[in-house]
Amino acid sequence: MLKQGLELKQTQKLSPLQIQTIKLIELPIQELEQRVKAELEENPVLDDSPAPDRDDDSDDPKDVSIDEIDENDPIPSYKLRVNNYGKDERPQYNTFSVKESFTQSLMEQLGYRNLSKHDHDVAAFVIGSLDEDGYLRRDIESIVDDLAFRANIQSDPEEVERILGIIQEFEPVGVGARDLRECLLLQLRAQKQTREVQMAEAVLTDYFQEFSNKHFQKIITKLGLGEEDLKAVISRIVKLNPAPGGQIDDSYSDQAQQIVPDFVLDIEDGDLKLSMPRFSIPEIRVNRKYAELLADAQGSSDRQQKEAATFVKQKLDSAKWFVEALKQRHNTLENTMKAILEYQHDYFLDGDETHLRPMVLKDIAEKTGFDISTISRVVNSKYIETHFGIFPLKYFFSEGLENQEGEEVSTRELKKALRECVDSEDKRKPLTDDQLVAEMNKRGYKVARRTIAKYRDQLDIPKARLRKEL
After folding, report:
1. Share in percent of the chain as helix, strand, coil (round to 5)
2. What's the CATH superfamily of 400-467?
C-alpha cells in the first residue's frame, strides 16, 4: 500500500562567498597568485591596470572601497573604483628548493645524441615510461606494444633494448635500470675497475639475494673472500644510489618547482613573531568601458541596455565575493597559524623535537573555532619558514602516547628516541624489537612491541637481522 505525506528537512546551502573562500583557503601562495590572474582574465568588468593620479574635481573614477558599492542604488561614476587591501606591485617572498625536472634533464641529454628521428622517438617514449626513481618497471614487450598502439611507432624488443642501453649511459648513472640489482651494477660498471669494484660486481651478479638478506658468511665461503674484503665490498655498495631519479625533484610536474613559505617565523627578544609574506593582490577596479555602460543604463527603458547593466552587476557581485574571500582566507590562515604557535610554543623557540606536543586537527579547531575540515585545508600544502628550517604545517601534527610518568609525548618524539636507539646499537649484534622495547623503557617511554614494529616500519628501519654488519 502506498502512502503519501510531507516531510520537512533542514539543509544548509553554502553561499557563493563561502564556496569561494573554501577554494582559496586550499591554495598555497603561488597557486593563489595564478588564481587572481585568472579571475582578472575571466571577469571583463575588472581591471588591474594602474590608474593615473586625478584631481579631486575630476569627473573620473576615484578610489572607493568595494564594500561601499550597493547595486540596489544608482551607481554614480565616482563609485566605480574598487580597491582592496594590497598596495605592492608584486608579492614579496622567498623561494626554495628549485630543482630541474628529471624528465627534462634526460630529454636534454637525448638531444645531444646523434640519433635518427625514429630512434629519438623511441627513446623519448622510454624516458616517459620511467618512474620517479628512474626505473623502467615495465617489461620490454609491453613497451613495444605501447609504442605501436599509443604512439604509432613500430619497433621490436631488440631495438627497445638497444635504445634502453643508450639511456642507461645518461646521468645520473643507474637511470633506466629495471630493478635494484641492475641499477647498482650500472653504477659499479661506470667506476674505475679496481679489485674492490670487481668484487662488488661479483657479489651483486651472483649473490644478490644473499647480500640483500645479510647472509655474509655464505658469500665469504662461496667467493673465498676475507672478512676485510667483504667489509670493503659492502662499504662500496652502500655508497651507491638506489634511486637515481630521486636526485632531481619531479614531485609536482615536469616543470621546475619552488617551495614558497606561506608564513615566516622570527624570534625577537625571546618572543615568537609571525608574519605572512606580503601577497599583494593587484588593485582591482571596474573597467571604464563597463562603468560607462552601467551609467548609461541607469533609468533607461531600453531592453538591451538593461540586460547589459544586469550583466555588469553580476560580474561586480562576483568581484566583491572574490575580494572578500581573499580577506577571509588571509584571516583564517593567520588565526590557524597563531593557534599552532601557541600550542607548540616551546618547540618553536628552539626546534627541539622533544618539545613537540601531541597535536591533532581537532586541537587547533577547538582553539580557533573553525571546523576540522577548515583546519585540514589550511594545513594542506602550506609551509612555514623558521630559524631552524622550512617545514610543511603537517609536520607539527602527531598523535601521542604516555611516558612512564604518565605525561603525554608526541609520536614524533618517540620515533626520534627509537632512531637514536638503533643508531647507537652494536651493528654486529643489532637490537631485536623486544630489546628495543627495553631500551625505550630505560629512556622513560612505555611502548609495546607492536608499536616498536610499526614505528620501525614507518622510519624505514629494517629488522635486526637486516641491520647486521661485519
Report:
1. 50, 10, 40
2. Homeodomain-like (1.10.10.60)
